[in-house]
Fold each of these.
Amino acid sequence: MRLAFVVQRYGKDVNGGAELHCRLMAEHLARRSEVDAVTVFTSCAFDYRSWANHYAPGVEQLNGVRVERFAVPFRRFPPLHDALGLLTTRGPRLSRLEPAWVVAQGPYLPSLLDRLSQVAGDYEAFVFFTYLYYPTVYGMERVKQRAILFPTAHDEPQITQRIYRRVFSTPRALVYNTPEEREFVRRLFDVDSLPDAIVGCGIDLPGPAAPNARPEVSAPPYLLSVGRLSAAKGAGDLCAEFVKFKQEHAGLSFQGLDGRSYRGSELRLLLAGRRAGARIPERDDIQVLGFVSDSEKRALFDAAELVVAPSRFESLSLVVLEAWAHGKSVLVNGGCAVTRGLAQRGEGGDAYDAASPFSTTLAGLLEDPELRSRQGSQGRRYVEAEFAWPRVEQRMLDILERVVQGGST
């Protein structure tokens, strides 16, 4: 097979979300004997908030994958984007403005669409990552007989726009991350007749503990949260919950990963990720690490008491899978059906919500080191069974073969 991927941004330093998922999938499939070549069609942008051109346009080879980049002719103008978003998702919902909202959201890439039309017959399949952006909304139409959509869908206002009914009816097949994502999409759209598969994303299991690159930061005991520090990802809410825990459980006694006894007052919260608008309080026990390298991230996972995933909007959580790969228990936001479902199936953590508040649930996990250890071990076994790369690659190849050969459900 010759495969093409279409995604809004792509690069070694684009670390997170659907873009990282796309890169990992493209790179792993490029190594398979069943695949002759992989090309990615994408923008020159690095920052999704502005779509400012960062990479050079043209063709490059990146980790065995051919990448074609197209310049974005204008940056995102937030006031226009936000105003159109309100007009198309609230109140009378002016659906005639939805195409304008998609353009305003960007990245606006008519040159990429023209290129897809030119190469429509050169690839057996075109895999589009995320339903939301301009390249998917208008790109799938150019290659719809060979289009596969990896929607990475979750419950957000934009997905209720009428324009996405057409988007979800266009591809030859749909690929999901979790059963919860598939159920959510099926509730919203008439897609039951389309071939589909739950594929997810693979995880490389770590070897021996990573060397501690920042010992002054990762001294125990601490909770770890990894991801973009935005309000949408729950970073600000997590900080508020952590402060409440410190107020209620400062005198809590618990055994740390290193075998020593600690008080709740000694616990810290480490936030690894780029700032993106979340309100983070200035406190000695909350530390923003910013972007961290892969080796630093591995060391942080290794020394964490447990890992917190505070986002309510996920189609999959690579952070949860990475935590389990390191044998860590996870604490997830119970308002996210996806991460709650992952925690239940993997038996690798707990969820917090109104009925089981963060402060109380965290205290219970800290007071029971054997439970944390057991959850971490169960999570790792689940990752080994379901998310090791060979298994994920084969699931993806199976649905690709069905589409290429004209298979159906």
Amino acid sequence: MNYDYDVLIVGGGLVGGSLALALGNTPLRIGVIESIPEEKRLASSAGDRALALAWGSSLILDQIGVWQGAEKKAAPIRHIHVSDRGHFGKLRMSAQREGVPALGYVATARTLEEEVATRLDQSPVTMICPASVVGLKACGEAVHVSLREGDKSINLTARLLVAADGGNSTVRQLLEIGQAIGDYAQTAIVTEVETGKSSDFTAYERFTPTGPLAFLPVAKKRYSVVWTQKAAGAAALLAMPEKEFTDHLQSAFGYWLGKIALASRRQAFPLKLIRAERMTGERVVLVGNAMHQLHPVAGQGLNLGLRDIAMLAEMLTARLEFGEDIGEKAFLERYVQARQADLDRVIRFTDTTVRVFSTDFFPAAFARNAGLLALDRFQPGKRLLAQYAMGLGNRIPRFGPLSK
């Protein structure tokens, strides 16, 4: 059978675009379907949001040629400081102790998306944009995809369809794949602050009775803030005048970085744990936010999505060498098995952390602080935690050249 494409990727954002680049040097014919024109995506205010990248994720981006340009605009995370407001427990990790230049990095979504878009323009990948998926059906050796491009209808075929179209995935809905949803009844307030003290590029995770408070370095005296609040508390904080809000934030965080001043507008996002009930359909696989959405407490959302596509790229590249069907059910099941342990571990860790650290009940608070203190002093345990924080809990898939 003749196919229009070997792999069609729905969603040209960071995860979908990275997968296209990871497969760009293979003989596979790759098409990327994106509903929003590139210039509108890059101009969106959402592009200003700061993203935490684990060290392992930078290695994945390096293989697709994105990291070389993005690193120049990213801030390194050289230290991680975890504390519990009003309690004695603390945990500290450093890149120097782990023998790496950085435990991770902070970069804006726009920086990464611009690098991905530039590389895609230089690749043999076909961009189908703006176009939306309106129907799909697997039949034998192909999946048939119906698109709407302006006032035109287009029908395409592929051997494999990858859904990287985000939390409101059209592909997942068309396949009628349900979701398991856990509502934390929390809201994340996101903003940026200027700090009184110069940063040594330390990322702070501070647990408070309302939820975690993260300060991520974006420059020597500038931090991105993610402040988790119960829904009612978030509404009150968002309604406050700037100075009153800043005073509450200063009280919650302390003076680790001196006096802080608000440097951008406040935005709010409801927090849920969402996981698709299955990862595949016939000749279809879900990756990134189309498959899973996490609480931002450990900053693992994008990192998990990049590991999804890195493993898929490695397995597809290996399968090509044997000339085997890249959309075969048994192959997709092996991919699910390859990703299962990492997905389960990260989701369980994130969910448990949120629940354990979002209460000030004394026995729970004492136990978690004793745990933080013990872990800080128990080097083997701290080393293991650092490895997971760096995205090195599993082997980094290889599908391209690595310059680091």
Amino acid sequence: MSNHVLLRGGRVIDPALDIDGVADVLVRDGRIAEIGPALVPDDGMPVRDVSGLVVTPGLIDLHVHVYPGLGDFCLHPDRVGVQTGVTTVIDGGTSGVSTFGLARRWIDDPDVQTRILAFMDPNQIYFATKDFICHKLEIANDPRNLDVESARAALEEHADVVIGCKVRACSTDDPRRSPFLDAAKDITGDMPIMVHLGRFPFTPTIPTSDLLAALRPGDVVTHAYRGASGVLGEDGKVTPELRDAVDRGLRLDVGHSGTDFRFATARVLFEQGYLPTTISTDLNVFNLDKPVVSLPETMSKIWALGVPLVDVIAMATANPARVVRRDGELGTLASGREADVTVLRIEEGAIPLSDGFETIVAERRLAPVGCLRAGTWIAAA
């Protein structure tokens, strides 16, 4: 398919470039050539009318599970990626060190159109399954599962796609310390660590207060808006540990999942100024049909809570690009960048949106129309 196209007359929102207005986007040889009004297409260049639609940098989902066959928890990357208007997905630690070569089969597959980056679990053995087998067998909390040197070597070997570590902060002999988080901090350098906020079946995790105190500037807490997570005190105010961690530069990620996002918690945190840095889905086999659906649907929930649309777009474009230190190539429509572009429709009416516990009725939502991935148009499924 052609990777030359003119997207005509959409509302272009690019927070990184401070653009929000009606414009054309000219793509030549799979790269952004120009943004502006009334652009003239090259001879023979196809023109796609996107008037009345929203045009953004390619959406980035910071937390998904997309290695089918490595366990039974994952979805096909294109099902949660380009088929929903998302051009880049970041796997949230489905694989540990020893199986990452198998995970790369999906990352390198030429038939997969979605760009895949990855957080890697620092354990030698970790893979996600429906029955949490690594936790049930207590592999996830066995320090013998750690080999810091081989984990460091794996990060270096796969540095083209691994952007940090995903840690399940399990404890062993000391209930307030996680050797798995310690190992990740040892090997990642300035790469971010993503941590799962909340408990796992079968294996103990360190308390939220200790977890927050142990994290570094630039690290990410996913499931930051789940219920009963320990980030709110009995008085309904954020805990000193959360306040201090955010002040140091901790990033808050939605990580919706089936049970890990609640409107009620989000309202309280938003009112106190604790907005997401990033919006992500944690899409997996449990939550695709409901309540998560897609990244645009999840963005719609944050929009419905009163966050301005431009900020919502930033939380799924420029912000995740900065979090994973790929803002030199992702998250904006800057001239010369690879043409990853998302086209969204705003649907209006009485629209039910569910967090899995509560359903609200929104006045509008974002729905994917399609995307350009490296300049090639892919319609939403």
